[in-house]
Amino acid sequence: MDTTCEIIDEPQQSLVKRIYYSARDGMAIALYTLLNDKSDVEVDCLINQKVLEDDGQRCTPLIVAARYGHNKVVRMLLDKFKPDLEQEGTVKFNGYVIEGATALWAAAGAGHLNVLKTLVKAGANVNHTTKTNSTPLRAACFNGRLDIVKYLINHQADINIPNMFNNTCLMIASYKGHLDIVNFLLDKAADPNKKAYCGATALHFAAECGHNTIVYELLKYGAQMTKNVSGMTPLITAAERTREEVVEYLVKRPEVTKEEKIDAYELLGASYANDKDNYSLNMAYTYLWKAMQLRYSDTENIIHKQLGSTVKAYENWKECETIESLESIKFNPNAIHMESLAIRERILGLHNPELPHPIVFRGAIFADNARFDRCIDLWLHALKLRQLNDISVVTDLLRFAQVFSQMIHVGVDLDISQVINVLEASVTELNRNKVKIQNPDSKDDIDQCVEEMESNITTTLYILTILTKLMTLNGNSDESDLTQAHHLVHKLCALKVCLKDGQTLLHLAVNAETPVDDFHTNDVCKFPCAATARLLIRCGADINAMDNERNTPLHIIVGYSKAISDFATLHSIIIDLIEAGAHMDTVNNRGHTPYDAVTTGVAKIILRTRTKLSLTCMAAKAIKTYDLPYRGNVPRSLESFIELHGPGLNQS
Ligand SMILES: *[C@@H]1O[C@H](CO)[C@@H](O)[C@H](O)[C@H]1NC(C)=O
Ligand SMILES: *[C@@H]1O[C@H](CO)[C@@H](O)[C@H](O)[C@H]1NC(C)=O
Ligand SMILES: *[C@@H]1O[C@H](CO)[C@@H](O)[C@H](O)[C@H]1NC(C)=O
Ligand SMILES: *[C@@H]1O[C@H](CO)[C@@H](O)[C@H](O)[C@H]1NC(C)=O
Ligand SMILES: *[C@@H]1O[C@H](CO)[C@@H](O)[C@H](O)[C@H]1NC(C)=O
């Protein structure tokens, strides 16, 4: 229920704020004084107003007092002024923003048992959920506050209300490792076999996080081992996260088959070999060996691996199929790494979201050891997996730009086809982002997409620049590679992506202020860059595109200050733009043509020798200058042409 009364005048607004801050700061008496002499109607209005703070919290006095644990204030408000107990506000805890939180939720979330009791006694609804369908009980389960959990449940809180992802209180307590709460919830008949949207059960969460005792407890209460949407059982989840103890416990369960046990051991070993936090070659070998032993443990019924095709990024590694072959690689770390990557891909499957991380990790280690070729193969493989599953890539494109730059800088051979592969991924990513921005699921989504778009565009520019280095360095580039590169750049230009300030890739390519990532990338990518500009122009970039200030690329480049020391760049870009048909008399928001925007004598000379205003341009310029009506009087195609020649004059 929202308040209907409106506070409009200045003194009242300031009163609302004083009331709010007294409540927030626990000043019960001051608060009482502010409200005491008001009529019931006024109080009713004032007391239910929300105040927006700088940090984004937006609460009523009651909610904020509950949030900060001011029990006296809460009691006083309830006794004297009867605020609406079910009002919702926005509160913040450790960076989490919770919308639709009542005072009771805020007290539970912040862990103030005394306030919580006061509110429950006053009749607050214990089942009132937030916007994401979180109950006060869920907040207490998250925080591990058994006392609050008990109190709420003893006062009829519903233990079965899941959040918007169907994630239950038992799941969150299992995930966070609060054994006492898990116990209590199970005693109160919480269902351990409920599933969240992703198909996960409480057992998945406990297993994933390695909370052994919670795993035992859940199983004692009848938790079953089921698969989540990615096809992972709690056992496989534990193995993937290198939770050895959980794996060893679960494989002993009667419902686990021998094949499942082998898979779990192999995945556990394979994960140890490529885990960022829990890397252990020794553990890896131990479990790979245990699994192999199991495969051969019954000579009547040997369980052979079902191998698919090999993967180039894993050196086309073929998995060991016998104890002897496995023993032969015991002291060969690289072999164990590759064996393990191949095993993870076989057991988890190409569509598993957990598959790429260790591949990226292994690639990064290769890069650290200057094995760039291996790094790039692995990262490209991870990138392919990401795009296959339509998940944003972990191996972000910037990392490729950095490694490519490092390779060029230190003079290591870089294969142009690899850069082309990454460019292709960039185009895919930009296109995907563009589609998302046009058809957003929500407002948040849009903001995030727009932000990502900004950085993905500049990264794509770096990749283009790197590409041009290779196209010129080895003039012997494969013809088909070059054709493919041009084809991709055409596709990229057709996307017409631009930054929030309206700059296109071509603007960025000719702009000295274009930011360059400083981890290796700036050794190779510098702007303005004539080769990048030329590539873009040849592949159909809009040479007359305007940024938000109506600057065309030509406006930007003529302002380049290193006209003498970097004359070649300046000259090349201006000539390329003009020869491609850049308009010389397009005016920006300040009414300046490129010629007016020139800041150096050198640029002026280049421009002057090139200026041959066409007759149509002169006519268009005159129309704009003298504000002649033209809309409807000239063919429609000419209208936009005339538009180029003057800032938005009033045309009717
Ligand atoms: C909360 O939910 C429980 C279980 O459904 C129910 O017994 C109780 O009456 C509800 N309380 C309120 C205030 O709605
Ligand atoms: C969420 O849980 C409810 C109640 O258990 C169930 O009916 C519904 O199908 C679940 N939704 C999904 C997507 O799992
Ligand atoms: C399945 O469970 C694993 C481990 O908890 C998790 O990483 C994966 O994302 C889950 N799959 C889905 C679709 O939620
Ligand atoms: C793996 O490493 C993480 C981070 O160092 C640690 O918190 C976790 O307990 C480790 N897991 C195992 C099974 O050792
Ligand atoms: C796009 O940019 C965002 C934000 O920097 C980054 O997280 C994401 O990985 C980028 N996408 C690609 C494909 O690099």
From TrEMBL:
ANK repeats lie at residues 99-131, 132-164, 165-197, 198-230, 501-548. Pathway: Protein modification; protein ubiquitination. It comes from Atta cephalotes. Belongs to the fem-1 family. Keywords: ANK repeat, Repeat, Ubl conjugation pathway. This is Protein fem-1 homolog B. GO terms for biological process: developmental process involved in reproduction; proteasome-mediated ubiquitin-dependent protein catabolic process. The keyword Glycoprotein does not apply. InterPro entries: Ankyrin_rpt (IPR002110), Ankyrin_rpt-contain_sf (IPR036770). Pfam families: Ank, Ank_2. The gene is 105627063.
